[in-house]
């Protein structure tokens, strides 16, 4: 008799901007009991604090472009080591986004004596992704994300949780959305091929209610 499949604890989420990676990463990481590591949050946090990363990242973010590989890799490496990934696991969201970043991540994990268990691709159509991005609003105080259409707060522009003001990110508006989606289509297809050849890639339909998507992801993870 074969052994029951063990829950996967070293996971990467990939998917178009607007696929819902942040929302699902929080739900799934809570279920798995592992840290949720968002590279977008790490990079933006460094920008907000005015660290040496700020100047290297700020202009790229404003144009909807990827932050240079060497900058993101350094931030990810530091956070993974802090999380104790060799023993405790993690759910990494927002990195890698290219095949070259995938190879760098493999080197980082090898350095700490571990490897990925699964890469989950959250699949959503380009038009739906654009609609989701254009309607996103983030709380300036607590960081919670809302959506003007799919998940609106009780009072327009005000966070239900902390009464902070809701704001639209600069890269969630107008032509920047198209730029971000173009970059994903161009750069991430080779990344999916990279992980597909390793046999660690699974695709999950990311359309529909949040709770349904979460259930599909947990099923793919064997949880």
Secondary structure elements and their pairing?
Blueprint: E1 10-15, H1 21-32, E2 36-38, H2 39-49, H3 53-62, H4 69-83, H5 85-88, E3 90-93, H6 99-111, E4 118-123, H7 126-134, E5 136-139, E6 145-147, E7 166-167, H8 174-198, E8 201-205, H9 210-220
Your description of this structure?
The protein has helices at residues 21-32, 39-49, 53-62, 69-83, 85-88, 99-111, 126-134, 174-198, 210-220, and strands at residues 10-15, 36-38, 90-93, 118-123, 136-139, 145-147, 166-167, 201-205. Helix 2 packs across helix 3 (53-62) and helix 7 crosses helix 8. It has a 5-stranded parallel sheet with strand order 2-3-1-4-8, sandwiched between helices. The two termini are 20 Å apart. The chain is globular, with a radius of gyration of 17 Å. The protein is α/β, with parallel strands linked by helices and 223 residues long.
Radius of gyration: 17 Å
Low-confidence stretches: 1-5
Order of helices and strands: EHEHHHHEHEHEEEHEH
| Structural category | alpha/beta
Strand fraction band? Answer: 5-15%
Distance separating the two termini: 20 Å
Average pLDDT figure: 82
Q: How much helicity do the residues have? A: 40-55%
Overall geometric form? globular
Tally of DSSP β-strands: 8
Q: Major sheet, described briefly? A: 5 strands, parallel
The side-by-side strand order for the widest beta sheet comes to 2-3-1-4-8
Number of alpha- plus pi-helical segments: 9
């Amino acid at each position: 008799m074969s052994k029951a499949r063990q829950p996967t604890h070293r996971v990467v989420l990939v998917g178009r901007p607007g696929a819902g990676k942040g929302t699902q990463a929080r739900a799934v990481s809570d279920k798995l009991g592992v840290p949720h590591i968002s590279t977008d949050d790490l990079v933006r946090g460094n920008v907000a604090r005015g660290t040496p990363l700020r100047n290297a990242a700020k202009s790229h973010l404003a144009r909807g472009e990827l932050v240079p590989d060497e900058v993101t890799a350094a931030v990810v490496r530091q956070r993974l080591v802090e999380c104790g990934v060799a023993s405790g696991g993690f759910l990494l969201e927002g990195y890698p986004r290219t095949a070259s970043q995938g190879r760098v991540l493999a080197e980082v994990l090898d350095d700490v004596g571990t490897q990925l268990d699964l890469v989950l691709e959250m699949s959503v159509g380009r038009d739906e992704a654009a609609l989701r991005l254009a309607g996103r609003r983030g709380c300036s105080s607590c960081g919670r994300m809302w959506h003007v259409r799919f998940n609106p707060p009780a009072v327009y522009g005000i966070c239900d949780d902390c009464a902070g003001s809701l704001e639209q990110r600069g890269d969630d508006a107008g032509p920047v959305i198209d730029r971000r989606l173009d970059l994903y289509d161009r750069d991430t297809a080779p990344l999916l091929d990279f992980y597909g050849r390793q046999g660690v890639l699974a695709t999950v339909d990311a359309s529909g209610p949040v709770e349904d998507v979460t259930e599909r992801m947990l099923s793919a993870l064997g949880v």
